[in-house]
Amino acid sequence: MTEVAVENVDILIVGAGPVGLTLHKALAAGGRKSMIIDRRPSGAAQDDPRALALSHGARQLLEQIDSWPTRAATPIETIHISQKEGFGRTLIEREDYHLPALGYVVRYRDLAAALTRNLATDALLAETGLIESRPDADGVTVTLQHAGARRTLRTRLLVHAEGTPADDPAVTVSDYAQHAVICEVTPVFANGAGHNKRAWERFTPDGPLALLPLGDEFSIVFTLPPAKADAVMALDDDAFIGALQAQFGGRMSFAKPGKRSRFPLFLRLRDTLVSGNEVWIGNTAQTLHPVSGQGFNLGIRDAWQLAEILLADGISEASLARYAGSRLLDRQGSAFFTDKIVRAFSNDFGPLKLARGLGLLALDLCPPARHFVAKRMIWGARAWP
Ligand SMILES: Cc1cc2nc3c(=O)[nH]c(=O)nc-3n(C[C@H](O)[C@H](O)[C@H](O)COP(=O)(O)OP(=O)(O)OC[C@H]3O[C@@H](n4cnc5c(N)ncnc54)[C@H](O)[C@@H]3O)c2cc1C
């Protein structure tokens, strides 16, 4: 293994996922250079199977850095929320919020492509992993692994955007004992209509089932206990459609399921967002259950807020402390909101089922309560408290 000389970098971002890329581009838009590294080969994000529901607020931020994937985004005009084998349902409609859409569904790969468009050629170092970081009073010394060689860098600020963290004493973990099985399916309606830009969230005792309109298809997030997820992953396509149908009910049928992937689901919360000259943003700071599509929507606000503070006040203990303080309400509120929804809805306990039905009915009949929930999904922190 060869060791090469120390290089200096002002801001080093580890992780070229959508959150790290957003930070890099927001800094560049304000005239500040940063370097971004990723251990994956360039273009690897094209294999990521996820589709993400993005809020209207996320679209506005991505537009400001010329990274909104216009043609690849499917608008959501209504959201239908219900529970399996229980009464009560609520409908959230775009017209009530005077917005072009409640949100948008975008494939991870199309978002990654839009974010890497127009990147400076030397901005992103692919196939480069972070091996070690040694913080001191003025910055961080970082050891990287690239093309079979170790490389040592000095940076004034190390931003961690590596995605979901591994087990670490600084991260509190809560296991939902649920896995998300995801794939794309074609909806089939008796009257021949399409999905009409409607998203569906159906709560079941196994976990939530989400159907997100994506082009002419639905992207589904089918949440199940791990053993049931094993069984569903092993089904042939016809049997898989049967299992999906049984969970969703008879409002529509499904056909042509695409390739299935699965993700174990946890709540992972890092205790502190800043330590010396290191900052954690996006999934590495907080990984949430995908139930209300908050993960990237929260991560982009991390990236944006950090860029705004760095551009205005530079790198200092005070500016980083201000960053950590400014993210408290949004991340705790989003984690609490998501966690409570998963735990309240993922069971078959009779009295809770009744309470959920009454809750959904109340949301439907009471516009202020419905707007409270909808605004948090659309705007995040700007809608708190
Ligand atoms: C099934 C599912 C559905 C979801 N649906 C939604 C949704 O509808 N809406 C929503 O907002 N969010 C959703 N999310 C969450 C969303 O996917 C994440 O919040 C988002 O991808 C986080 O982006 P990130 O950039 O922080 O991390 P990632 O996307 O995980 O990217 C991290 C990057 O860091 C790199 N990396 C890791 N370690 C190193 C290292 N040591 N050195 C160098 N590089 C490294 C990785 O290669 C990767 O490219 C969903 C998640 C799942 C699992």
Keywords, separated by commas or semicolons:
9-stranded mixed sheet; 9 helices; alpha+beta; binds flavin-adenine dinucleotide; 20 strands; globular; about 30% strand; 8-stranded mixed sheet
Description:
There is one protein chain. The chain is α+β, with helices and mostly antiparallel strands and 385 residues long. The chain has nine helices and 20 strands. It has helices at 18-29, 56-64, 108-116, 226-234, 237-248, 295-313, 317-345, 350-365, 367-379; strands spanning 7-14, 35-37, 51-55, 74-76, 78-83, 89-93, 103-107, 124-125, 128-135, 140-146, 149-160, 171-188, 198-204, 207-214, 217-224, 253-255, 261-270, 274-275, 278-280, 286-287. The strands form three sheets. Strands 5, 6, 12, 13, 14, 15, 16, 17 and 20 form a nine-stranded mixed β-sheet that branches. Helix 6 (295-313) packs antiparallel against helix 7 (317-345). The longest helix has 29 residues, at 317-345. The chain is globular, with a radius of gyration of 22 Å. The structure holds flavin-adenine dinucleotide (FAD). Residues 14-20, 37-40, 50, 52-53, 129-130, 161-163, 180, 182, 221, 263, 282-283, 290, 293-297, 299 line the site of flavin-adenine dinucleotide.
Q: What fraction of the residues are assigned to beta strands by DSSP? A: 25-35%
Task: Report the structural category.
Answer: alpha+beta
**Average predicted local confidence, pLDDT:** 89
Please give the largest β-sheet: 9 strands, mixed
Shape estimate? globular
What is the number of beta strands?
Answer: 20
Radius of gyration: 22 Å
Percent helix range: 25-40%
Pick out the low-confidence regions: none
Distance between the termini: 54 Å
Ligand set: flavin-adenine dinucleotide
Count of runs of 4 or more consecutive helical residues: 9
Oligomer: single chain
